[in-house]
Structure to design on (460 residues):
């Protein structure tokens, strides 16, 4: 199968021009102006943007949490992602404390095998680091192509490791060409505040936010940066929300240190006032919580300054009935919100269309940097000869409204209900095959492939 895309506005992290893209089989074969290839299918992209398929490196599909599981599995989640222009996701495998990494891997392979529409990979969350785990980490990197390892500085007793284990893990990962990522919040401080608010009978969703003040994130981000500096291990902070945490990374750059930073689309455009909507605020209960307007401004600036490298989602949806588990106690509300389908369109509408970021920066933080940081570039994350033909054809002028009535995520409410968006994903090509065209699905469940990854590019 060959496809020729004609007369589109081609955008990568570095380039921006009108031209054509020719696809043979699953790869890009040529890029240029007035290409004359004979193709099985010709797509006229006049007036449309052409950019690399999005990569969302922070999703939770079919994830066990607080006695339930996130409502999107690999089938519904990756299909919803494709509808929004995201062609690849990286999910998190959670090691059970006391069990092996390989057992966790087998569990997640069972969740994903034959079910994914879009391409995917895994991060391995290390929740119990010991000598046996050390050997498994090495095997994951060199044999399984899993090169990033998630750590938690919160959720004691289930996911959290201590600083000594963190340093040991970093040294092993450093020596084998991997990357350590972190949920950087001070779990002890948060647990203390949760207990205090519950004891005082303060049980609404607002107290989820008030139990995780900015200092809990900025302190942990600084501590993680110090540990990566000490070990010389590449480090990546997931879902950064606030000015204080970003300033901790800014301080790290003064000693010529590079710490990669991810924020999520919700932290750029939503704020903590949503927690004042009585229990309706449960729709936005996530950790870390939404912050203040000043934090949004800092994160947008951080993107343009190169301090914030990636915009993901932390997509972890729960049905409203699941959220109601915490109707009488905020600490029992499953944490997470649905966004996998809306990331690219919201980032374009709120970022590019409103003049906050350039088109090139949009591609950089939605696709290219994730591919570089997580060892997939230039196979993924760019438009280049020999790269996978993962391509989005995007109408930059089409206005539409986000709603539970039209989204494809498996969740019965929208965190962005009624949001007016400028820019619409029109056609999505995955590895040379039209996957989505004007809302219609043209691939089968199971078309998505697991992507083995290599070493982190420290120059991303």
């Amino acid at each position: 199968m060959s496809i020729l895309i004609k007369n589109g506005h081609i955008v990568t992290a570095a380039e921006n021009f009108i031209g054509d893209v020719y696809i043979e089989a699953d790869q890009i074969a040529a890029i240029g102006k007035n290409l004359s290839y004979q193709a099985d299918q010709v797509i006229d992209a006049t007036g449309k943007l052409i950019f690399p398929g999005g990569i969302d490196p922070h999703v939770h599909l079919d994830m066990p949490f607080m006695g339930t599981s996130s409502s999107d599995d690999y089938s519904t989640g990756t299909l919803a992602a494709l509808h929004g222009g995201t062609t690849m996701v990286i999910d998190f495998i959670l090691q059970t404390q006391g069990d092996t990494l390989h057992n966790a891997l087998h569990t997640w392979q069972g969740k994903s095998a034959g079910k994914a529409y879009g391409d995917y990979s895994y991060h391995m969350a290390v929740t119990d680091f010991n000598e046996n785990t050390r050997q498994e980490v090495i095997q994951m990197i060199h044999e399984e192509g899993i090169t990033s390892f998630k750590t938690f500085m919160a959720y004691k007793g289930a996911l959290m490791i201590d600083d000594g284990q963190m340093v040991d893990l970093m040294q092993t990962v450093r020596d084998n060409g991997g990357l350590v990522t972190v949920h950087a919040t001070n779990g002890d401080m948060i647990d203390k505040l949760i207990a205090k608010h519950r004891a005082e009978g303060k049980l609404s969703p607002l107290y989820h936010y008030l139990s995780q003040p900015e200092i809990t994130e900025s302190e942990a981000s600084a501590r993680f940066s110090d540990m990566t500096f000490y070990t010389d291990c590449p480090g990546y902070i997931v879902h950064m929300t606030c000015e204080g945490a970003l300033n901790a990374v800014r301080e790290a750059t003064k000693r010529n240190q590079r710490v990669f930073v991810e924020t999520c689309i919700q932290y750029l455009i939503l704020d903590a006032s949503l927690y004042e909507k009585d229990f309706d605020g449960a729709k936005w209960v996530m950790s870390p919580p939404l912050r203040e307007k000043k934090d949004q401004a800092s994160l947008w600036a951080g993107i343009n300054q190169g301090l914030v490298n990636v915009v993901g989602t932390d997509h972890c949806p729960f049905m409203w009935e699941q959220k109601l588990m915490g109707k009488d106690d905020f600490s029992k509300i499953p944490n997470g919100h649905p966004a996998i389908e809306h990331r690219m369109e919201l980032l374009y509408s709120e970022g590019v269309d409103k003049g906050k970021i350039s088109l090139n920066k949009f591609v950089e933080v939605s696709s290219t940097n994730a591919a570089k940081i997580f060892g997939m570039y230039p196979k993924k994350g760019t438009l280049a000869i020999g790269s996978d033909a993962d391509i989005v054809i995007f109408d930059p002028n089409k206005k539409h409204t986000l709603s539970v009535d039209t989204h494809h995520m498996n969740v019965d409410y929208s965190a962005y209900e009624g949001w007016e968006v400028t820019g619409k994903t029109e056609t999505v090509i995955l590895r040379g095959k039209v996957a989505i065209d004007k809302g219609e699905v043209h691939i089968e469940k199971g078309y998505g492939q697991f992507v083995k990854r290599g070493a982190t590019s420290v120059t991303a």
User: Anything to note?
Assistant: The chain has a mean pLDDT of 97. Residues 181 and 270 are 24 Å apart (CA to CA). The longest strand covers residues 391-401. The longest helix spans residues 214-231.
